[in-house]
Specification:
The protein is an alpha+beta fold. Among the domains are: 272-332, 2-Layer Sandwich (Double Stranded RNA Binding Domain); 338-366. The protein is 39% helix and 11% strand. The strands form eleven sheets. Strands 1-2 form a two-stranded antiparallel sheet. A two-stranded antiparallel ribbon has the order 3-4. The chain is globular.
Length: 384
């Protein structure tokens, strides 16, 4: 039995086990289907319902369906009006959870890191962040030598070894290794609900994380710093890419067909579609299908005007994503922070500098071939 996509985007549906688990508690209860672990047996029992499609609970008021009784109970707060956010209409199971949620609208962050002064809305998020400075990684993979600072990161990593993806989207048949990834996919791809507003330009976003990344375009904030050099980044995945490419820190994911390497399992998965010919992303307006979600997003914008164009405030040029706009915005700055070590030339981006380095590498190779192996053409002065 399929669940309504809009239902799955509500805060307490499907992902019931993740709202009560904590990183620092032991998790002795193991799900034999997907190997996910839980601190309490009742949490495991609730989680098991996600693997039983026919066992659903219906609301007597609106007939919406849920995978657990607790999710249905929390849903009923919508009809009673209990613990409801006045800003975005999200409903919560307790006054404490509602108070924490309200901080996303007010911007209040009462918990501050003593090392870098970064602030957080919840104490648990500060605990997780602190491990960046201490480099503590208590969660170890029993199949390889990798260790992680958070249990959720370990759970995500395990799918690399097992290949299990038990959570299937009923709308496009894409499979996921974790229920929260499925829930995030449905909200981002299949739902048009955008409750988060930018205080600077009024643009609306589906998730709080998307809003936070966007706001950095206005503020210029770069909260992610490299521990090896002075580079700073606006997004964590940019730092991760930098660590891999510049300092060889992290894990490359290799395609078994062509041995090309990628910085994440998701990038590898998108690449594999080139070999298999799979096109899992389909347009809801026409028959077009795509191998990658960003190709579908571009198609929806250009062909059906669905989505959000990102506009440069200086020259009004439009872009399909915030990252493209960000790369463009540096062109209006007189600062070129990337300096060539071989010559005085400077560049706006790291990728431009790397492309320029090839000029020097090719020149050195030609000089070597000419002088050491007499391969090439000498040019002689006709006067002397």
């Amino acid at each position: 039995m399929e669940l309504d996509a809009a239902d799955k985007c509500q805060p307490f549906e499907i992902k019931t086990e993740d709202t009560t688990e904590h990183d620092d508690k032991p998790k002795p209860y193991l799900c034999t289907v997907c190997d996910k672990r839980f601190t309490r047996k009742d949490h495991l029992n609730v989680h098991r319902q996600t693997h039983i499609v026919d066992n659903v609970y219906s609301c007597s008021e609106c007939e919406k369906r849920y995978l657990s009784q607790s999710a249905l109970r929390r849903h009923k707060y919508i009809h009673t009006g209990k613990y409801k956010c006045t800003e975005c209409d999200n409903c919560y199971g307790s006054s404490r959870n509602l108070a924490v949620h309200r901080r996303s609208h007010s911007g209040e962050k009462p918990f501050e890191c003593s090392v870098c002064s970064k602030r957080f809305t919840e104490a648990g998020n500060l605990v997780k962040h602190s491990r960046i400075h201490s480099e503590e990684k208590p969660y170890k993979c029993h199949m390889c030598d990798k260790a992680f600072s958070q249990s959720g990161h370990l759970n995500s990593h395990m799918s690399v070894h097992t290949g299990d993806k038990p959570y299937k989207c009923s709308l496009c048949n894409i499979n996921f290794s974790q229920s929260n990834n499925l829930q995030r996919h449905i909200c981002r791809v299949h739902s048009n609900r955008r409750p988060y507003h930018c205080p600077y330009c009024g643009k609306m976003f589906k998730t709080e994380d998307h809003l936070k990344c966007h706001v950095r375009i206005h503020t210029g904030a770069k909260p992610y710093s490299c521990r090896h050099c002075s580079e700073r980044f606006t997004q964590h995945n940019q730092l991760k890419t930098h660590l891999l490419k510049s300092h060889n820190e992290g894990t490359w994911f290799t395609c078994e067909i062509c041995e090309k390497t990628f910085i994440s399992p998701s990038h590898l998965q998108c690449h594999v579609h080139i070999h298999t010919g799979a096109k899992p992303y389909s347009c809801r307006h026409c028959s077009e299908r795509f191998t990658q979600h960003n190709h579908l997003k571009t198609h929806l914008l250009k062909s059906h005007n669905e989505g959000t164009w990102f506009t440069c405030e200086i020259c009004e040029k439009t872009f399909i994503s915030a990252s493209h706009l960000q790369r463009h915005s540096v062109r209006h700055s007189a600062v070129k922070p990337y300096v060539c070590s071989e010559c005085p030339k400077r560049f706006y981006t790291d990728s431009e500098l790397k492309r320029h380095h090839r000029v020097h590498s090719e020149y050195k190779l030609k000089q070597h071939l000419l002088k050491s192996h007499n391969e090439g053409t000498w040019f002689t002065c006709h006067i002397c």
